[in-house]
Amino acid sequence: MYNPPAMNGQLACVILAAGRSTRFKSSKSKLLHELAGRPLVEWALDTLLQLNPAQVIIVYGPHSVELTQRYKDGYRGQRLDFVLQDPPLGTAHALAQTEAALHTDIENIIVLPGDAPLMTMEHLSQLAKVKAQLRCDHVVISAEVPNPYGYGRILRDPDSPEMVAMIVEEADASAEKKLLREINSSMYLFSSDVFEHLRLASELIGRSAVKGEYYLTDVARVSSMGAYKISDAALIEGLNDRLQLSQMDELVQRRLREKWMAAGVSFILPETTYLHSDIELGQDVLVGPQCYLAHGTRVGSGTVLQQGCHLDACTVGENCNLLHVHAHEAVIGNHVRVGPYANLRPGTVLGDEVRVGNFVETKKANVGRGSKLPHLSYVGDATIGSGCNIGAGTIFCNYDGVNKHHTTLGDGVFVGSNSSLQAPLSIGEGAFVAMASAVTRDVPAGALAVARARQENKTGYVERLRRRQKSGAEDAGPGPEISAEAGAEEIAAQAADSLEGFNSLGSDPGLSGPAESGYVPDGLLSQDAEPATEPETKEEEKQG
Asked: What is the mean pLDDT of residues 369-397?
C-alpha cells in the first residue's frame, strides 16, 4: 500500500535505466553491476519501496533488456512495470514514455536515475514538504560540490532564490555557468501535470543543439520548480564508469564498517574486510583481517572470525571461532570451532559445540551436537548424530557416478582414521568402524565393523630380498647371458617368497573375513583406545 502522509497523493516511482552506459564498457546493463553485494538498481528500488508507492516503473532500453528478464516477477513483493525507450532521445523522452503506463489516479511521480545508490528514503520523503511549502509544480534535489564537472548546474531565480530558473547541462553550459557549483541530482518529485510541461518544453525549446536530446531539466523553464538542497553530496553521486563504482564501493565499505563498530563490533585491519550491505553482526563479534561477509550472512554475538573467513549466505551462532573458513549457505550453531582451511558447502548444518578441523569439506551434512570432524575428511550427503568422532582421512563415498546417496550415523559412532563409508549406509548408535575400513554394509548399533585385510609380518624378509637384489645386480653386468629358464626360476622363487605366509588366510574353510572370525588387528581404533590382542593360535581364534 502507498503511504499518503509521505507524498500527499497517489505516488508512482520511475527509475530511468535506458542509457547505454558506454563508459562502463560492459556486456550487461550498468545497473546490474554490484555495489556491496547488490545490483545498483536494487539500491534504488530498496529506497523507493520504503515510500510504499502505488506503482514502480523502470524505463529500459535495448541495452538493458536483461532488467526485464531478471525482475519480471517483481522485487520484494512489489510488481514492476517496464517501459521501453527506443530510440533513446534523452531523459524527457524517457519519462514521456511512461505516461500511458501510469495508473489514472497517480498524483505525484518520483524520478530517479538507477545509478545513485546512496539516496535515502528520509531525503525523498522531504520533497513533498518542500513542494507544499513553496507551492510549486515540481521539486529537484540539489547539492553543492567542489568539482561540479559532468553535472547539470542549477541557476536560481534572482527574484525567488528558493526556486530554480533553469538547469544547464554540462555539454551546453557556457564557461561562466560552468563555474557554478550547485548541481542537479537528476532526482525529482513531479506532479502528474509534468507530461503537459514536457510537451510544452518540446514545442518551445526542442532538442539540445549539442546532444540532440530532449532534456528533462527543461521542465524548469516552462513551470515552477523548487530546489531541495542537501548537505551530503555523496547521496546524489552517479556512477558513470568502473572507477567511480570502485570509489563508491570504498565509501560504502567505510560507512558499513563504521556502522557496525558503532553497534559493538570490533575489526582488526578493517580496511581489509569486505562487507555486503545486508549482513548482520551481533554485539562483541570480532572480525579479523581479510574476511568477506556476503549475501545476508548473520553472525551471533561473541563470535570470533579470525583471518581469512569467507562466509556467503551463512548463519553463524554465538561464541564460535572460525579461522580460514570458506562457507556457502551453511548453518553453524553455538560454541562451534571451524578451521583452519575448512570448506562448508551448501546444506551444511553444524550443531552446537561441533568441532570441524583443518582440510575438512562438508556438503549437505547435518552434524549433531558435540561431534568432531577433526581433519582431512570429506563428509557429503550425511546425517551424523551427536557425540560422534570421524577419524582423519575418512571419506563419505556418496556418489556412484550417476546418483548421490545418503549416509546416516547414530549418536556416539566412532569412525577410525582412513576409512571409506560407501553410501547408502547406516551405522547404528555407538558402533565402531575400524581404522582403514571400507564399509559397504550397514553396521548395527554397538557393533564393530572391520573391513580390511589382515597384517602379516614376514621375519627376515628384507635381508633375503636385499641378497637377491644384489645377486641380480651382479648377474646383470657384463658376462655370459642368463638363460630364459634361469630367469623364470628366479622370478618363480621371488613370487613364492612374496606369498609366504599369506596362503594361511584362506586355509580355514570357516574363515570368510577378518571381522567374522573375531580377529581384531592392532591399531583398530584410535590412538587413545586399548589395542586389541591377536590370538596366538587358530584354535584360540575360533574359540574367540
From this structure: 98
